[in-house]
Design a protein that fits this description.
Family: Belongs to the Orn/Lys/Arg decarboxylase class-II family.
Number of helices: 10
Pfam family, one: Orn_Arg_deC_N
Enzyme class: lyase
Order of helices and strands: HEHEHEHEHEHEEHEEHEHEHEEEEEEE
Mean pLDDT: 96
CATH topology of the largest domain: TIM Barrel
Cofactor: pyridoxal 5'-phosphate
Shape: elongated
EC number: 4.1.1.17
Strand content: 15-25%
CATH class of the largest domain: Alpha Beta
CATH architecture of the largest domain: Alpha-Beta Barrel
Structural class: alpha/beta
CATH superfamily of the largest domain: Alanine racemase
Amino acid sequence: MTAKIIDFLRERRPEGPCLVVDLDVVRENYLAFAHALPDTRIFYAVKANPAPEVLALLASLGSNFDCASVAEIDMARTAGATAERISFGNTIKKERDIAAAFARGINLFAVDCEAEVEKVARAAPGARVFCRILCDGAGAEWPLSRKFGCEPDMAVGVLEHAHRLGLAAYGVSFHVGSQQGNVEAWDAALASAAGIFELLAERGIQLQMVNLGGGFPTRYLKEVPGVPSYAQAIDGALKRHFGNRIPETIIEPGRGMVGNAGVIKAEVVLVSKKHESDSVRWVYLDIGKFGGLAETMDESIRYPIRTSHDADEKAPCVLAGPTCDSADVLYEKTPYDLPISLSIGDEVLIEGTGAYTTTYSAVAFNGFEPLASYVI
């Protein structure tokens, strides 16, 4: 929460739930990454928050962009990024989208199987590809599934196939899981990447790049290590596994770039109990999973919540959204402590919500408007 956001909400009094993002915080986060990892190129994960103002700021600072679709590629280009500063990082792409990206000058594509390689070879001949590998997401609050990536042993064949088809086998990528709290999480993945580099070198194919992915956390309820701690651990792992032949490296921060820059203003719609002797209240907000808080799924991300009654006595409550869908419950397995004096009409501020909120609220479920966003 910044003074700039507090002043905006006090002066503007926007109606309904909304996200407010402070660009000064985004700038500070970018500069922290650039300073801690000076030899690593930053590819901001556009999906985290594609607000034009955020993209334009990052483009002006020199950021590159990790895009998951042609639409995101166009957003990055509109913001001022040239084609060589954009990666098509989704491993699941329609061939016509690969062709559309290639026509826009994009020359860097993610793959994780031979069929995807073949699509790229047909639609973007001669392009550079990097193969995503599976890795352990232990330590992450939002672990990523097996949907993306292949076993490291398989990656050797995937990249060799790309080479045979005339593509440039450029490197290896991985993702250690979002909101990764363990600074050493990159070590095992880098060991796998180094093994792939060595095996392909023996076959005459020289890889050049390791994409370290995202995973850099923002602060929610718990303290997290700072960017310098991650940078130091990654630097040590690179030297340990690659020796004097350090490859090019890139990172794809999303949450770590914009998460702490945003605050959602919401309102209490109802406070109730399920039976007279119930000691746990149900507090319903005018925003829920379908309005932008999808990452509360399985209660993985627990956002800090601030109210004007925080000096009062608190008690556990179930926190839920306003829609008529029984899945729209934010915190029930581990109830949330909120002031007993909290009542209908009170405002609540949900901190750390700059990432993955507006992009998850794109559909007006139940007729509730998608989450309004203000970038200041």
